[in-house]
Amino acid sequence: MKKQFLVPVLLAAGLAVEGAQAGALAVDPDVFDYGGNATLDTTYGYAFTVAAGSAYTITALGVFDETNRSGDGLSDSHPVGLWNGTGSTLLASVTVPSGTTGSTVVPSGATFFAFPQGQWRFVDFATPVVLTEGTYLIGGFYPGRGSDEYFARATGNLGTVNTLSGITVTQGKVANGSAFSPPTTNSGDGYFGPSFLVEQAIVNPDLTVAVSGQSTSTTAVPEGPAGVFSFTARYCNRATSPTLEALVSRTRVLTNGNSLVNRDRDGTGTPAGGVGSELDFPLDPDYDDGLLAAGDCVDVLYEIGLAQRTRFSFNVDLLGVDGSAP
Length: 326
Hints:
Blueprint: E1 4-6, E2 12-14, E3 20-23, E4 25-26, E5 33-34, E6 42-50, E7 56-65, H1 67-70, E8 78-84, E9 90-96, E10 104-107, E11 119-131, E12 134-142, E13 151-152, E14 162-163, E15 167-176, E16 185-187, E17 194-202, E18 207-217, E19 228-237, E20 244-254, E21 259-260, E22 278-280, E23 291-292, E24 297-305, E25 314-321
Antiparallel strand pairs: 1-2, 3-17, 4-14, 5-13, 6-12, 6-15, 7-11, 7-17, 8-9, 8-12, 10-11, 15-16, 17-25, 18-19, 19-24, 20-22, 20-23, 20-25, 21-24
């Protein structure tokens, strides 16, 4: 039986079992330049390390789709691979197809992505790969004079690359040539076109929740003609739980045609602000580094646009990443 947290008046909030994925990489586009339109066939990528005591389950590989310049969809297909640190062992590979089909779109505003100029296109592989302490390579193949772009010229700026707490980008890597191959040659540039997804785990056993500050405004908004119902949920990591990161609230039930108006992104194939809409945990004092340690708490504000002023149900799944090794 799923654990439910019931709140009087209008809300039924719960922590439920649900799987999802979080991006592993964020780059400040004001620090990096665009690359692309390479003159030679090249596999571009970077080396990264996983820290001692950390472990991440990788479920998909992908490339950046720069929508503001080249339009929605990729101009070329792109093989993407994940190797061990020397490039001698291929751990996983996919081919992200050209166009807009055959890949999963992850919005640029999703957790751990900071590219306002576009989105990501990922392809799952059959068997997830668990990365533990060590060094790894990732690379994506870009044909010469192609139009799909990536972020490059990261010399001196690798410190601005934000990742999950146990992952550090260490070196730009390339492999020149017409064949897709491990990028083992050091480059002063960091080439952030290829990336990967990390599986988010079930975190309901690790968190408690308390709701406060319920209020209703009768002022109509575009997604709430009957007003807005607001409340704050305080989520606390139990004293015996591991540190959690990439925390997201995903709407599982929202009835009466209501909408989560302060969402960060919508679900796929569902009404805007409805089931599947997501709200990232804010970086408040206990969570200012994106890590919720044992005993720490974070306050999350929910604003529900009301289609009508009647009782409704609202239920969320909480998703996050536990990067500690089992």
